[in-house]
């Protein structure tokens, strides 16, 4: 009888630890706030969209710079949409040239 209780308690402990680890990871991967400061287009190599309700508390666009710094921007701003279009255009241009030109160094496909 004692072994069943021990196994049950061990299972609960394991479940608790696993759920707290995944919750902690989600917070680290999300933007907690956004900045309205414009980001220079020559510094950006990629972007990703963050959706509210999919593990994060706010909608945002996460731009990654050539120095691997993540910058969070609001999704509804015109300059953000223009920057996303610019990154898409640059990646498409570089992909056609197999990322060989100097302009394409450091970009992520």
From TrEMBL:
Start and end residues of each Chemokine interleukin-8-like domain: 27-87
This protein's record includes keyword Signal: yes
GO molecular function, one term: chemokine activity
Protein's GO biological process: immune response
Primary location recorded for the protein, binned into one broad class: secreted
Localization per record: Secreted
First and last residue of the signal peptide: 1-24
InterPro entries per record: Chemokine_b/g/d, Chemokine_CC_CS, Chemokine_IL8-like_dom, Interleukin_8-like_sf
Entry's Gene Ontology cellular component terms: extracellular space
Alphabetical keyword list: Chemotaxis, Cytokine, Disulfide bond, Secreted, Signal
Domain of life: Eukaryota
Family in the record: Belongs to the intercrine beta (chemokine CC) family.
Protein name: C-C motif chemokine
